[in-house]
Amino acid sequence: MNKFTETLTTDNAILAMIDHQTGLLVSCRDQDPHLMTENIKGLCSMAKTVGMPTITTASMPDGPNGPIMPEITDILGDEVIERAGEINAWKSPEFKKAVEATGRKKIIMAGIVTDVCLMFPAISAVAEGYDVYAVVDASGTWNKAVAEASIHRMTQAGVKVATWASVLAEVMDDWRSEKGMELGGVLGQHTSYRWVYDSFLQANQAHK
Q1: pTM confidence score
Q2: What pLDDT, on the 0 to 100 scale, is given for residue 169?
Q3: Potential cystine with 30: which of 41, 78, 106, 147 (Cβ 3.0-4.6 Å)?
Q4: What is the domain extent for residue 59?
Q5: Are strands 54-59 and 106-111 parallel, antiparallel or unpaired?
Q6: How far is Cα 59 from Cα 121, in angstroms, rounded to an integer?
Q7: What is the pLDDT of residue 203?
């Protein structure tokens, strides 16, 4: 099967959260910061719900970039690969080794900022045969023009540009799947889909 048509599953993908650090978040102006935070939390919750392997990394967290945002560590845990200087996470031996240790070739990536922390490792991983999904609404950068330029460059390099809710739906695949309703709850918790989800739950309750 062509890698561009093969879909994400709980068994073939990992999640990499790259440099969502408090000092860098201040500069993100391409989308509403509260919405971006909900997108990030939703993406992390999706991975945790289905038991997907996750990797979190930070660039010089003791410096001005700051620590990983607590919303991520609260969901995925405190294990963070702290890079001493590599701007491109893919050039960090520890990060790359963690990816390779999963044995999986599909990487769902998000990063702050989009045009550096996400774009550089996404392109580098594709160059080495990985199938990368860049989740742009769980990433952020300086302004919309920068975000659009990053999307164009990643697309040119063969990175799949995605959104977190689309990734969740692709992984879920079927509402009747083992984690279907639980994933629906994640979607409802972090998007306006909550009204649909709540209505469904109430209708089900009424028929019992």
Answers
A1: 0.94
A2: 97
A3: 147
A4: 13-173
A5: unpaired
A6: 13
A7: 72
